[in-house]
Amino acid sequence: xxxxxxxGDEAIAQGAIDSGLxxxxxxxxxxxxxxxxxxxxxxxxxxxKIRASWSANEKTAMEAALGMxxxxxxxxxxxxxxGLNVAADAFLNSAITGANGGLIVVSADDPSMxxxxxEQDSRFYGQFAMIPVxxxxxxxxxxxxxxxxxxxxxxxxxxVMMRITTxxxxxxxxxxxxxxxGQNSLKLPExxxxxxxxxxxxxxxxxxxxxxxxxxxxxxxxxxYNRFFDGxxxxxxxxxxxxxxxxxMENFPEGSLKNPVLKITQYPLPEKMVRKxxxxxxxxxxxxxxxxxxxxxxxxxxxxxxxxxGRMDGTLPRTGELTPxxxxxxxxxxxxxxxxxxxxxxxxxxxxxxxxxxMDSFRALNAALEEYSKGRVFSDIGCYTLSAxxxxxxxxxxxxxxxxxxxxxxxxDAGLVPAxxxxxxxxxxxxxxxxxLDAVISxxxxxxxxxxxxxxxxxxxxxxxxxxxxxxxxxxxxxxxEHIHVINPIPKEHDKNVKIIREELEHPGxxxxxxxxxxxxxxxxxxxxxxxxxxxxxx
Amino acid sequence: MKxxxxxxxxxxxxxxxxxxxxxxxxxxxxLYLKQAEVHGMSQRGGAVQSHLRLSSSPIHSDLIxxxxxxxxxxxxxxxxxxxxxxxxxxxxxITNNTPYVNIPGYPDMNALLPEIRSxxxxxxxxxxxxxxxxxxxxxxxxxxxxAALPFLEIEMKHLEDALRQLFGHKGEExxxxxxxxxxxxxxxxxxxxxx
Lengths: 539, 195
Ligand SMILES: Cc1ncc(C[n+]2csc(CCOP(=O)(O)OP(=O)(O)O)c2C)c(N)n1
Ligand code: SF4
Known about the structure:
The complex is a heterodimer. Chain A has helices at 8-17, 33-41, 43-47, 58-70, 81-97, 123-129, 139-156, 166-169, 199-222, 244-250, 271-280, 293-299, 324-331, 357-368, 403-413, 425-441, 470-477, 494-506, 520-538; strands at residues 3-7, 21-26, 51-54, 74-80, 103-109, 133-134, 160-165, 171-176, 227-229, 236-241, 261-264, 266-267, 283-288, 308-309, 377-379, 419-424, 446-451, 484-487, 511-515. By secondary structure, chain A is α/β, with parallel strands linked by helices. Chain A is globular and about 75 Å long. By secondary structure, chain B is an alpha/beta fold. Chain B has a single domain (2-194), classed as Pyruvate-ferredoxin Oxidoreductase, domain 3 (3-Layer(aba) Sandwich), CATH 3.40.920. Chain B is built from 7 helices and 6 strands. In chain B, helix 1 (15-28) crosses helix 6, helix 4 (127-133) crosses helix 5 and helix 6 packs antiparallel against helix 7. Chain B is globular and about 40 Å long. At the A-B interface, strand 1, strand 8, helix 10 and helix 13 of A face helix 1, strand 2, helix 2 and helix 3 of B. The complex binds thiamine diphosphate and iron/sulfur cluster. Thiamine diphosphate (TPP) binds next to helix 5 and helix 16 of chain A. Residues 27-29, 58, 80, 82-83, 86, 381-384, 401, 424-427, 453, 455-459, 464 of chain A line the site of thiamine diphosphate.
């Protein structure tokens, strides 16, 4: 079969298209975005009528995928690691309902927080839900494991998690495709009470999940994805998880590694295999990308067994992404002659594009807030979070999507009046709307700025679910029409915009100000596409 | 054959296009390839880099080990020296000389250029000028790639193949412009070496 040059994300997408996928559901989030984008753009996926578009948030995506699985078809849901927090209720309960058609939940972690608020490790969610977790070590494995994941999902009637990290998601490699398989036909679960988690029924389902643990463990031992490579030097056994294996092998070209190695890419941990390495070796080194999950399990709370090294005892750094160099320090002794970066080199952090509408919005907000003490602006996640940096320094919080509105409510309740929420249009429909309802019900003295750049810009300009709906949503939720203002964030309108925001800050109830101007990157892309259509028509 | 390459620049300067060109050319030549890219936040005008690994045998790590890179190809001079610790002592440092100043405290060029020249194997070219000369202002990234070609061991026919795959749908003119940019960069390196 043909060899494709694909990102890890794209390999997962292609794997799903080739494995009978019927629908993919997702909310964008780095580093998971390119999975769904690939399926949306893919011609074959369109011909196969695979359902592919963005959901309002990760919870709605997870639930829709569960619904498709209920109906017997193969579904995939993709998100970044913190998205799984949003989807957690549906996710954990899906382990109890089980799956009918194959169901794969892809969660993409971001160790080192390249584009995230934290570096949480999704494997804990997999362990928490007690479902099989796949953690591919390379792009080809990612492709192959999608097929396998759907198969065991259907075989055992369970959702399966695929956990990847930034480096795999955003690294390209050659992929060999497999013969495609067709989609499932509509077929409801045999037991139509399976998905009703009333206590009496849920208890039975939970029992079944517990009974399945042994089967899942056996599957981890037999699938061939977890592999043991023996070695003569039994002083130290090495256990790697996911892509950490590559960093280990990079340091030992052509069979020069003499220690036994257990390569983990599937959970629950295969007990027999782990026991074998543990018993054969004097001590264990665990190299894992993420939190010390396996290390902690092996060590146990009392740490009375053999020495276990890894991230917890400083053999490897406690935080951040692994690299071949970091792993080298843990497995080899050698001179530490690191070359330093020249003092001439300055940090170059990301910033708002020149001419970005957010810049004008925050300039106006800063001016309107001049007469008040500092520290009143609760914000959210998106390009506009970059307004925290110089020269704007406009905002005081960025916690989780939607938190701007509700944190402003709480701070206003405490007496911080006026309090401001600044939230992007896509973040608003993701999880700002329910908070606004709270604010309306308590008539909180807050001013909500919904920064409408008509796109989900931070993650590359996906369509925004809010497009054309914001005023109606706010009115529908109960914000009074006279306190909803749309303003044009351009330099020429600055004074007018400051005046409107200032007046609403003085209003003792809830107001919404919507600065509306398209993201210049999205605009440029749209214009380019338009030109192309025009050119094609002419020729 | 093994070539470990660091591509460096600022988000929006087109290093992903350089990466895609080399990547597709390598596949056309039948090499193994791993190419770690930066997507997400840093693309908004931040420092970005890409690790590109080509080899005639399978490759393990997506990231290049420190001090092992054979080459840094940079479309921006300050970004070129950010990754010098990654470069092997006899590796090549190839950079465009036009600074992209979007931060306060950007270093003085009179200090920056000697720092680049202090690296034994280096090439400094004016990619913007060459791009203007061939009438395609936006091809400075491809000119910079062209400057690296003498050290890359990838034949022109594979690169042409890659450009056709990347730009073919935009018309033959685009393919030719990019080929011209590559040739322009190659020539700039020749001239730099001849002094
Ligand atoms: C729960 C969760 N899901 C997804 C993300 C990734 N994410 C960060 S910002 C953003 C887009 C926000 O879009 P919008 O609010 O319209 O702001 P813009 O970037 O357009 O200014 C996304 C999807 C996240 N951080 N958290
Ligand atoms: S991508 Fe759009 S929203 Fe983001 S900084 Fe640039 S112009 Fe602003």
